[in-house]
Amino acid sequence: MEPIGIAKELQKKFPDSISEITTHRGQVALMVERTPIVEMCRVLKTDYQMNHLNCLCGVDNLSRKMAHGERFEVVYQLYSIQNRVTLRLKAQVPESDPSIDSITCLWSGANWLERETYDFFGIVFNGHPNLQRILTAEGWEGYPLRKEYALRGDTEWKGFIELKEKARQLSKFDFYGAQVEQE
Amino acid sequence: MGLKDINIGLSTGLVDLPEWEKSAAFKDYQELEAATAQEKSGGLGVWLARLEELVAIPVNWGRSNSVWPVTFGLACCAIEQIGSGMARFDISRFGSEVFRASPRQADVLIVSGRVSMKMAPVIKRVYDQLSCPKWVIAMGDCASCGGPFNNYAILQGVDKMLPVDVYVPGCPPRPEALFYGIMALQQKIRATEKLGVREKDS
Q: Which residue of A has its CA nearest to B189?
């Protein structure tokens, strides 16, 4: 079945939750509500053999000035290995309550992808077995891929401040008593 | 090799020449030049010196000709570093072919690539584990000053946490550039006067 056909059948099953079906260069994308995302993915996985989660990521639409839709999106890129079709779900996540249900019950590979999305966008995945930061350093503050996050960060990472202090203390034991360049 | 070549070769290119000439590093290079000239002319005419200085000559000669790097690579510069170790470029011509897998057996840490914030404590630990005497080469633009990565995740130059001896510009530097850096480090080692006893805890 073509992806647009799957999208239309899915819209019949979830009439209230799918607000828009768009096609761009043959790629079909569905703009969906966040509440039935697990059920929707389950239907796609079992009934339409969309058995491979290609990618899961977050989007911050702050500067896009969308007429509809929320600030954050979680994008699910699904692929059917048997039928060779691709489908994209764009779940809308509001800024006031950035949370969505986890799909680790369907694809355990979503575990780290959801952690990454949480790490960079601060979107909480309900029911995730181990929701903690994955890529940024320990004790990181802020969500770097949000638009309001400064390019160089708002504050210096406290781990590095500790490290500089340690380097300063240890520098007198250096070979030539070398001093680390102070800022 | 003129003084200006050293300036061009070793500064990151961000420093203006008049400012550079005022800096302490410039004074070091002047002394280094003088020491090298003395060495070349077969100088050291009078063999009356402090024992430490006399001992320093053969010791520095030995140290400078066996600068062993620690096996440590961060990014694309590491590929050039590997390339310089292979037969075509052959880092062993300068006595640095022994990439030790343990920092305790190595002399120099070649920071080859961009240093992410998460990697910084690891590099600091590797540096601390190097046995004295130890040196650091910042290889490439990223390790020298952050390079193109002007963002929250990348440390803007490894000299913010380690005392760097030689900066090698390039993105990534070719093996020849790394060799130039190693040879500059060798000159620096040969010009060392005191053998560097660890200072006591104050």
A: A176
A117 found inside a domain: yes
Q: Are A110 and A56 in contact (CB under 8 A)?
A: yes
Q: Do A160 and B118 touch (CB under 8 A)?
A: no
The answer as to whether A127 is a domain residue is yes
Q: What is the CATH number of the domain that holds A45?
A: 3.30.460.80
Residue B194 binned pLDDT confidence (cut-offs 50, 70, 90): low
In a domain, A89, yes or no: yes
User: What is the tally of structural domains in chain A?
Assistant: 1
Q: Indicate yes or no: CB of B152 within 8 angstroms of CB of A144.
A: yes
pLDDT of residue A54: 93
Q: Which domain holds residue A34?
A: 3-132
Asked if B172 contacts B76 with a C-beta cutoff of 8 angstroms, the reply is yes
Peptide bond into B133 cis (omega under 30): yes
Q: Collect all residues of chain B within an 8 Å Cβ-Cβ radius of residue A172.
A: 199, 202
Nearest to A28, CA basis, from A1, A6, A60, A53: A6
- For A82-112, write each residue's pLDDT tens digit: 999 999 999 999 989 999 999 999 999 999 9
Is B159 within 8 Å of A180 when comparing Cβ atoms? yes
ipTM, 2 dp = 0.79
Interface A-B, measured as beta-carbon pairs within 8 A, has a size of: 64
Quick check: is A119 in a domain?
yes
